[in-house]
Amino acid sequence: MMQEAVYLPPRSGMRASGRISSSSAQPLKPRNGKSGRMALVIILLLSIGILLIQNIDQVYGFVNRPITKVRIENQWHHINDEDVSKMLVDYMGSGFFNIDVKGVKQVLEKHPWVMRASIKKLWPDSLSLELTEQVAIARWGQSQLLNQKGEIFHPRFVQLTALPALNGPEGTQIQVMEQFQAINRLMFPAGMKLTGLTLSTRGSWALSVNNEMEIAVGRTNVFEKLHRFIDFYTAQPSIQTADYRSVDLRYDNGIAIKKVQGDFPGVAIR
Q: What sign does the CA torsion over 131, 132, 134, 137 have?
């Protein structure tokens, strides 16, 4: 008796044998990739650290090179390279990290023509210098100079004879400088250049104009007297005023003038 084979289809919800799920088809990602790279970095850093420790003297010597060069960042008029070289001789050869930059600044600013020094280190072996020079506005006394702030400085060799000559008691240089600037502004439009100003110990003012005319003003009403003289001066012919050598304004309402030849009669002004 022959038996018939019966085919039974798979039930719903059941997977046929031999079917591969889609998730099993994706490649597997390595789980230890990031930690492996981190381990390599750590090993590399440790190796570098060991090498540095073993060769610390050579590495420090390479980084901390001696200062052997100076770079000038601006032009100087009254400071020369020889002076700067002499002032820096004790600092040249110091290590880049050892050099006393503050000390270099202090030494350079002792030079009479240096108002301010700016110092920078440039690796591996250089110094950068920028020196701000004093600006001489006037002579003070016999051998000193005044800068634009009215401060005194004293160069070794003073040959700036073209500068106006200011004089006064000790400690009055700022007062004299301010008075000089104010009087010069007043007289310049009239063609008179103030080339000297002196304040006496008694407080009297005396002027030098155009390097050839001396004016005694006195202690009081300085600008009132100067205005009076300027009005008179500008009203005279230039061929006549060129002969004026001394003027005395120490009068309440008059002017006394001395010319190259003889005296100019006193002029009363009311």
A: positive
